[in-house]
Amino acid sequence: MSRERLYLFDTTLRDGQQTAGVDFALEEKLIIARELGAMGMDYIEGGFPGASTTDTAFFAEERDFGKARVTAFGMTKRAGRSASNDPGLQTVLAAKSDAFCFVGKSWDYHVEVALGVTLDENLAAIRDTIKAAVSTGRETMIDCEHFFDGYKANPDYALSCAKAAFEEGARWIVLCDTNGGTLPHEVFAIVSEVKKHIPGERLGIHAHDDAGCAVANSLAAVSAGVRQIQGTLNGLGERCGNANLISLIPTLKLKPEFADKFEIGISDDGLKNLTHISRQLDEMLNRNPNRHAPYVGANAFVTKAGIHASAILKDPRTYEHIPPEAVGNRRRVMVSDQGGRSSLLAELERIGLQVNKDDPRIARLLDTVRERENAGYAYDGAEASFELLARRALGSVPDYFDVDSFRTSVERRHNAMGELVTVCEAVVKVTVKGEARMSVAEGNGPVNALDVALRKDLGIYQPFINDLKLTDFKVRILNGGTEAVTRVTIESADDSGDVWTTVGVSPNIIDASFQALVDSITYKLVKSGAPAP
Amino acid sequence: MSRERLYLFDTTLRDGQQTAGVDFALEEKLIIARELGAMGMDYIEGGFPGASTTDTAFFAEERDFGKARVTAFGMTKRAGRSASNDPGLQTVLAAKSDAFCFVGKSWDYHVEVALGVTLDENLAAIRDTIKAAVSTGRETMIDCEHFFDGYKANPDYALSCAKAAFEEGARWIVLCDTNGGTLPHEVFAIVSEVKKHIPGERLGIHAHDDAGCAVANSLAAVSAGVRQIQGTLNGLGERCGNANLISLIPTLKLKPEFADKFEIGISDDGLKNLTHISRQLDEMLNRNPNRHAPYVGANAFVTKAGIHASAILKDPRTYEHIPPEAVGNRRRVMVSDQGGRSSLLAELERIGLQVNKDDPRIARLLDTVRERENAGYAYDGAEASFELLARRALGSVPDYFDVDSFRTSVERRHNAMGELVTVCEAVVKVTVKGEARMSVAEGNGPVNALDVALRKDLGIYQPFINDLKLTDFKVRILNGGTEAVTRVTIESADDSGDVWTTVGVSPNIIDASFQALVDSITYKLVKSGAPAP
Q1: CA closest to B186 among chain A residues
Q2: Do B33 and B62 form a contact (C-beta atoms < 8 A)?
């Protein structure tokens, strides 16, 4: 059975850079492009040559991006001058790219209001630009900006823009929902109309998520006939972002409705690497990954409800639409009040703890979990603390170190120069293998100072924790008022890319934080196979 | 032109509670239900009576939820016992609800594997449960669990489950995509088939976002004929979450493709309140709001690109699919913020500060707000700090007191009895009316100790702050990593019933907390009309 080829076009480095707060360095662009190439992306839009030094430099670099065609973005030439006389266009054509993608307007209103030129001048700009690019011998495509809004306002004009590019030899005519407000059934209907004029294998879709439908719009366009999808990793992009390729790729590769009909360039290994790529990008941008992201989110295969959990144990397909391993993610059954015994057993199995399910320690562990959850602990969001609790109940966590005491102080005062400064210090005393050790450190705040002091000298355990770092810190006040209890959740990571979460609870925020810090270090020691003292 | 009525069913308090890490307190459930009622929600699913004390208690509370029908969730009766002999079912039927929603299985595989009963026993359980609920005279509906997967595996059986509930008098037969992996065109096709057996005005849709299509699936189901949509605020829910009502409501109210055909219960004011409701829920859950969320995200109407920005200035419709004000959001153009000024003026008017709109202090205040928001302050959720900033810009806040210095320490050590204790102390030096005062206090934690010390002796201002109390304290880490900045938000209240929120930002959590504490006291002094020193 032969499947049709569907092409993927990544614009993380160009349209993704329009995200508020995102500004890739050259080195970051290269890292992302290499990942995209390795997974089998068809097109990588690297930037707009001439628009910034980074964008220009990207095209001058040596490439190692697999079979991906590196694409330079540009604007159609300005009205009133010829293509050869438009320096912006010439800079794009001079870039060392494999392909070009030009944005051209196709909404009459926009041409007249935003651009301030006549409809005919805009058509001529599209024709001349595509002609000039095609004459270089390189693959050329057009992003028809605001195509769907334009089609709804003036279908003849929108179509004439698309056809102009097609007639001049553009390989791809990409229909853009620039404002992101078009809905799937409209995309389907409009693409179906366009297909009467331009063959589907020459059409592409470029969707934005302003109505929460960018992924569905891309799928609707494919169902209607387009054969190229433009999008970004993690749905980066201006406003609500572009179509999220991280959500689209597994659907296209794993769902029979698409996988049976279409072939895409992404390899099985590329698919398995998707969770990693998604989180690596967040890491680069210093963002918290969306735990609820389709396919790759930390919670995407987490089950909380008790009945669901017991069904998952019988057969994961009962509550999983795809196997999490296929996208490099993993299953988690949560232990919580609602989950009960079966979730607990499932979680122990996942952690790799072999226990007979009638073992009396199971009931005791369940009691402990419930007691602690009543006291304010939340193991739902703190798998590492749960794992330690479970391993301790089963007797497999060594007492690597004992904390004898700690103290921390924060002082705000005027310094010798008369400036207001805040000074923060912590002292921690620990015993490792019978030997007392005392460390002192300064920090940005008391928790940071304690963290630094605690990890400064753990004797023989130091090599195991060198690459540990705190990546997030959350505080929640429970109960409120005078009975208030503080829950601190700490997220940690290490160089292997592992991320884990620990929790501490106390009326005192510093105490709660310290518990979570100690759990994080202990977890890291367990996972690294550190020896008992 | 008469439009068909489309009903919205919110399950934030039930299915939304399946979100990992989410566990609503009774008071939180009531706050959310009041907001839902005020916006015009048709159904509010409050929980599963009998499943937890909070869920049970919710139904016993006095209600003030507008026209919303409070719905109790339950499971169909167990096989092998009669409805009247099933204590779980009887607990649900005994709850003081306006309506019931029972979950019943409709996938043959699930009935046999997860439930371990025969297909006929499951059908009988559906019939008997619906019959028992309908006989109470209250509106009854069924959530057909895994309907779409079930239909794909065994359409006859899935349909027979839906028809059984319909025949027994269920008002709504809700088709659930429980695993969330169904795609919009499949939803459309399957709903179209079901409609041949059950009228569309009796059908509902319950979608999950595992393929990133929950919103589109809900819309596809409506296009195919269903007349009830189930979803949650902010798309809370297990794994990747449920269909996000915050994204669906504006589409249904504002997009002609739906708004011309359907009427929903949400009022225009409810729509304008959507941004607030979305952020309030995140605040309650101590989550960072998704800046890129459709319609309500802080970035949903932010324009970065220079050309886009200049077009937006000419006419916002050029790059906006709806006017941001309609959903209570606002436009932000990163180069030259025109929206900022008008919302600032509106806010000053709300506070009751009379200013000429050409007053040069307005522009300076706007600059300050922007600068501070860039640094991490969030005035959206801290009106009292904003009001102080505005009043200071206009010169109307006295310097009641000066803080010369503070220090706080936390120490954990073994006491004389050999017990581990944590001791926490703070010292604050202030100058009031030229007179230096120094106070020391102990507390549950460093912030509590600082708060007590700071309020211990403010001289002539003491009588004004006697009834001030801290009611909530929230911490959020911004940026993360080494650039991390801490934002502390403090909620205070006094005996008059007033509640206000202040904010502090610093790399040091203690500094940030102290700023927010000082703002809270200052705000209280302003509002109490305390005299200048």
Answers
A1: A257
A2: no
Q: Answer whether A4-285 and A356-395+468-533 agree in fold.
A: no
Question: By the 8 A CB rule, do A72 and A92 touch?
Answer: yes
* Length of chain A (residues): 533
Nearest CA-CA distance, residue B74 and chain A, Å: 13
CB atoms within 10 A of CB B529: 7
Give pLDDT, residue A40: 97
- How far A66 CA sits from the closest chain B CA (Å)? 28
Residues of B in contact with A517 (CB under 8 A): none
- Is CATH 3.30.160 correct for B402-457? yes
Residue of A nearest to B24 (CA): A478
What are residue A439's DSSP bridge partners? A428
Q: What is the pLDDT of residues B488-505, one digit of tens each?
A: 989 898 888 788 999 999
Identify the CA nearest to A216 among candidates B220, B152, B224, B227. B220
Specify the fold of A356-395+468-533.
Double Stranded RNA Binding Domain (3.30.160)
Q: In one letter, which amino acid is B293?
A: A
Quick one: fold of A301-352? H-NS DNA Binding Protein (4.10.430)
> From the list B179, B219, B403, which residue is nearest A321 (CB)?
B179
Q: Using a CB cutoff of 8 Å and minimum separation of 24, what contacts does A281-285 make? A: A281/A12, A281/A32, A281/A233, A281/A234, A281/A236, A282/A234, A284/A28, A284/A31, A284/A32, A285/A21, A285/A22
| Nearest C-alpha neighbor of B366 from the set B383, B344, B348, B387 | B344
CATH number of A401-457: 3.30.160
Per DSSP, the residues of B443-511 read -SSHHHHHHHHHTT--GGGHHHHTT-EEEEEEEEEES-GGG-EEEEEEEEE-TTS-EEEEEEEESSHHH
Pull the structure tokens for residue A76: 């159609």
- Integer Cα distance of A18 and B334 in angstroms: 11
Judge contact between B492 and B524, C-beta under 8 A. yes
Distance between alpha carbon A249 and the CA centroid of its chain, in Å?
14
Cα(B104)–Cα(B173) distance, rounded to whole angstroms? 10
Q: How far apart are the first and last CA of chain A?
A: 61
Cross-chain CB nearest to A410 (options B308, B408, B477): B408
Measure Cα distances from B119 to B110, B111, B115, B158 in Å: 10, 6, 10, 10
pLDDT, tens digit, 9 for 90 and up, residues B354-380: 888 788 888 888 888 878 877 888 776
Closest alpha carbon within chain B to A316:
B114
Of B282, B271, B373, nearest to B323 (Cα)?
B271
User: Would you tell me which CATH number, out of the four given (3.50.50.60, 3.20.20.70, 3.30.390.30, 3.40.50.300), belongs to the domain B4-266?
Assistant: 3.20.20.70
Provide the strand spans (E) within B364-434: 402-414, 420-432
Question: In the structure encoding, which two tokens stand for residue B192, read together?
Answer: 């179209």
**CB pair distance less than 8 Å for A179 and B321:** yes
**ipTM surpassing 0.90, yes or no?**
no
- Find how far residue A480's CA is from the centre of its chain: 34
Q: Residue A313 pLDDT more than 80?
A: no
Please tell me the predicted confidence (pLDDT) of residue B315: 78
B414 has which bridge partners?
B420
- Name chain B contacts of A186, Cβ cutoff 8 Å: 257
By Cβ distance, the residue of A180, A286, A404 closest to B481 is A286
CATH class of A4-285: alpha beta
Domain boundaries, chain A: 4-285, 301-352, 356-395+468-533, 401-457
Q: What is the pTM of this model?
A: 0.78
Pairing verdict, β A401-414 and A420-432: antiparallel
In this predicted structure, the answer to whether residue B87 has a pLDDT above a threshold of 50 is yes
How far separated are the first and last CA of chain B, in Å rounded? 66
The shortest CB-CB distance from B481 to any of A408, A447, A471 is to A471
